[in-house]
UniProtKB/TrEMBL annotation:
This is Cytochrome c oxidase subunit 2. Pfam families: COX2. Residues 75-171 form the Cytochrome oxidase subunit II copper A binding domain. The keyword Transmembrane helix applies. GO terms for molecular function: copper ion binding; cytochrome-c oxidase activity. GO terms for cellular component: cell envelope; membrane. Its main location: other. Gene3D superfamilies: Cupredoxins - blue copper proteins. The gene is cbaB. The chain crosses the membrane at residues 18-39. The lineage of its organism: Bacteria, Pseudomonadati, Pseudomonadota, Alphaproteobacteria, Acetobacterales. The keyword Transferase does not apply. It comes from Acetobacter nitrogenifigens DSM 23921 = NBRC 105050.
Length: 171
């Protein structure tokens, strides 16, 4: 090897090492950014979801009585029974306080609707005769739109509700 070859080789190795370091740093940044996004915007791990295909008579009664109301079930937890019907959600506007853990019981009284709360991982299908359950904790105040993401006819696109998360009054 000539001195030139050696110098070239050493410089190539330096560049290669620098390149590898860059890639590792980029991967680390990407991982951190992804975790941050998932945890902060989507409230990871607070969502549980299940379907109950054969509610008992008692459960039906409770659901019927509570439809449209936000029911307080604990110090910071709430339950809401929501029915989708072409082309609206009932209740259409839901108020909960900041930090509330809300369990949504979702069903449909006609066709399939898609119950999705934008900006959250809440997304389940509203099925006639079936009660779907999904739980979510609203950590920040603001208006979250409930949309229908399952085509259900002419006015499907306007089947929009709201979850309004209110700031807690100073205590
Ligand atoms: Cu309801 Cu689309």
């Amino acid at each position: 090897m000539t001195p030139f070859d050696e110098a070239f080789h050493a410089s190539a190795e330096r560049h290669e090492r620098a390149f590898i370091v860059c890639v590792i740093v980029m991967m680390a940044l990407l991982t951190v950014a992804t975790m941050f996004y998932v945890v902060h915007d989507f409230g990871l791990v607070t969502t549980t979801q299940s379907f109950h295909s054969d509610p008992t008579a008692a459960e039906r009664e409770v659901a019927a009585a509570d439809t449209g109301r936000v029911v307080k079930t604990g110090p910071n937890s709430y339950a809401v029974h929501i029915t989708g019907k072409a082309w609206r959600w009932t209740p259409g506007v839901i108020h909960v306080p900041e930090g509330a853990e809300v369990t949504f019981y979702v069903t449909s009284s006609d066709v399939l609707h898609g119950f999705e709360i934008q900006g959250t991982p809440v997304n389940l299908t509203a099925v006639p005769g079936v009660v779907g359950t999904v739980k979510y904790t609203f950590h920040r105040t603001g208006v979250f739109r409930i949309i229908c993401n399952e085509y259900c006819g002419m006015v499907h696109h306007a089947m929009i509700g709201q979850v309004i998360v209110d700031a807690r009054a100073a205590e």
